[in-house]
Write a structure and sequence with these properties.
Elements: H1 8-33, E1 51-54, E2 56-57, E3 63-64, E4 83-87, E5 93-105, E6 132-140, E7 146-154, E8 167-170, E9 188-200, H2 212-226
Antiparallel strand pairs: 1-4, 2-3, 3-9, 4-8, 5-7, 5-9, 6-7
Length: 233
């Protein structure tokens, strides 16, 4: 029987071949995982939101509806100046007009507080075809207290207005006291304050199944959070 023996040279060749093979394999894996691409950069332009609520200007930069002197009862139209918004944004927006009713006793000057706001506090002739929806936004602030705002919110996105054009919030002589006002408003001097806010409509992805109340809640929540709960009027 002939015994085949591997010479030292043969063993050395085999070892070098194995090492070469391992180097090729692991070197390929290392190259694969360390591959990178050339840098890709991009740039976006943030939208500009610019609105102007036009009427008499109050101390807090909010707008005041001016009403002629007189004595009025719920349901009676007031002789008011119009309230309009000029939209100079470069993107479609939802508008929210937060409003407040201030009432004080004619004789004592004491303000009326904690009145019922579950129903609209103004009547501007809103119906199903109106641009606006009167909504009560209720949330909890960082201090744990409940914040409540009555607001008029656009049902659809609003696009920039052309020169000398505007979005009407309240027509001239179209404001009236709601019939839901109770006896607590008797013998009171009344004033109305309005503050406009805007948010890009592309922020939201509403579906046709979303209710108007759901949309208003989402819009007002986004505005409230954007201002860190510091919505003043």
């Amino acid at each position: 029987m002939v015994k085949n023996r591997l010479s030292g040279q043969t063993i050395a060749i085999i070892i070098l071949s194995v090492l070469l093979l391992l180097t090729a394999c692991f070197g390929g894996v290392y190259a694969y995982y360390s591959t990178n691409t050339s840098k890709v950069s991009g740039r976006i332009v943030m939208a500009n939101l610019n609105i102007n609520l036009q009427a008499g200007i109050g101390e807090s930069a909010s707008s005041e509806i001016l009403v002629s002197n007189g004595v009025f009862v719920p349901g009676q139209p007031l002789e008011n100046t119009p309230l309009v918004v000029v939209n100079e944004s470069n993107t479609p927006i939802y508008l929210s007009i937060i409003y407040k009713v201030n009432a004080s006793n004619i004789e004592t000057g004491e303000p009326l507080e904690n009145y019922d706001d579950t129903n609209p506090l103004i009547d501007i002739g809103i119906d199903d075809d109106s641009l606006w929806y009167d909504y009560l936004f209720v949330t909890t602030g960082e201090d744990g207290q409940e914040d409540r705002y009555r607001c008029l919110i656009t049902k659809t996105p609003q696009y920039p207005t052309e020169t000398n054009e505007y979005i009407t919030v309240i027509e001239e002589n179209a404001l009236s006291i709601p019939r839901t006002w109770g006896d607590e408003f008797q013998n009171m001097q009344i004033s109305f304050l309005f503050q406009a806010y805007a948010i890009g409509s592309n922020t939201f992805t509403f579906s046709s199944e979303d209710t108007i109340d759901f949309r208003c809640q989402e819009i007002m929540t986004a505005i409230y959070e954007a201002y860190e709960g510091k919505i003043n009027i």
